[in-house]
Amino acid sequence: MVLNDDQKMIQKMTKEIAQKVIAPQAAYYDRTEEFPWENVKKLSEMGFMGMAVPEIYDGAEMDMVSSVAALEEISKACASTGTIMAVHNSAGILPVLNFGSEEQKKEYLPRLATGDAVGAFALTEPGAGSDAAKVMTTAVEDKECYVLNGSKCFISNGGAAEIFIVFASKDKTKGVKGLSAFIVEKGAPGFSIGKHEEKMGIRASSTVELIFDNCRIPKKNQLGKDGEGFKIAMVTLDTARIGIAAQAVGIAEGAYQEAVAYAKVREQFGKPICYNQAIGFMLANMAISIEAARQLTYHAAQLKDNRQAFGKEAAMAKTFASDVAVQVALDAIQIMGGYGYSREYPVERMLRDAKITQIYEGTNQIQRVVISRSILQ
Questions:
Q1: CB of 43 within 8 A of CB of 50?
Q2: In terms of pTM, does the model score above 0.70?
Q3: pLDDT digit string (tens) for 266-321?
Q4: What does the alpha-carbon distance between residue 11 and residue 5 come to, in Å, rounded to a whole number?
Q5: How many CB atoms lie within 10 A of CB 213?
Q6: SS3 letters for 9-51?
Q7: Which residues lie closer than 8 Å to 60 by C-beta, 6 or more apart?
Q8: Whole-number Å distance between alpha carbons of 68 and 294
Q9: Which residues are part of the catalytic machinery?
């Protein structure tokens, strides 16, 4: 994949801000688990909180390849910030952009695109992860409102978000065909934030429980038609997986660069360890895997930009890139030995951050179901 001049400019601009501003604070945010509002502010100023949003709604109107290039650089510097950026731009914005009425687009997209409001996507529940038919949150009509009851868990950006895309069932007997999607704003009556998760990785991204206790929202806040919730979720997640693949590539590249730099200066037996074949071959395999993951990711992004089917390719990219991120981070720690295991170096954080890419936006086991069904249909 060869980037055009505009895409190269976005990549260069993102890399500069990522390395100069975001990377130096990554360890601090990981340690404190504070939401990185300063990073979000900087990304907003650069247009990276509304990458896919058309200019008429105050967005940057970037193509998917440009978005992938930006996400890779941000995630290389700080995976937590990469998560916030990826979830906001895909799961937080795309349901409104792709399925919202013109009134909904005018009301919500400018706030999201400028970073005035952070977006979140609420599908997962304690009993409904990979199986969306198990969603227990309900939506019942009451005059000019819908009343939502239930709870969601593991909601990325949840503690910082102002606008939530929430999935609830209007008819449980219909399974996924009974699901509908709703826009819920922070402060809606009966809506509250529950447990804040303490996580292994991406610790600065806010992951929370959402509680709906007779939560009342206007009827106009339904997104799409009755029963379209599952479709909205799946279409959104197809694109979101390309972003997670880009995040995984960024994490892997960051760990690889740390390992290379260390191996060039660490001497044992009279020479830098990079010249020992065992280490040199590990670095070679890391480089091969990262480049393969990057090409899969950019290929899926290019298919989307060309308006071609990309669901299978997005699943492939997400699966392969996330597996690569975990393995490369593990190998980086091995190359760096005790230093790699120490918090003095960032690779132990990168390993902790990498693991989630195999889980969220659809586990890698579910991605293989998606891929196999596509192959066999």
A1: no
A2: yes
A3: 999 999 999 999 999 999 999 999 999 999 999 999 999 999 999 999 999 999 99
A4: 10
A5: 13
A6: HHHHHHHHHHHHHHHHHHHHHHHHCCCCHHHHHHHHHCCCCCC
A7: 47, 48, 50, 51, 53, 113
A8: 10
A9: 361
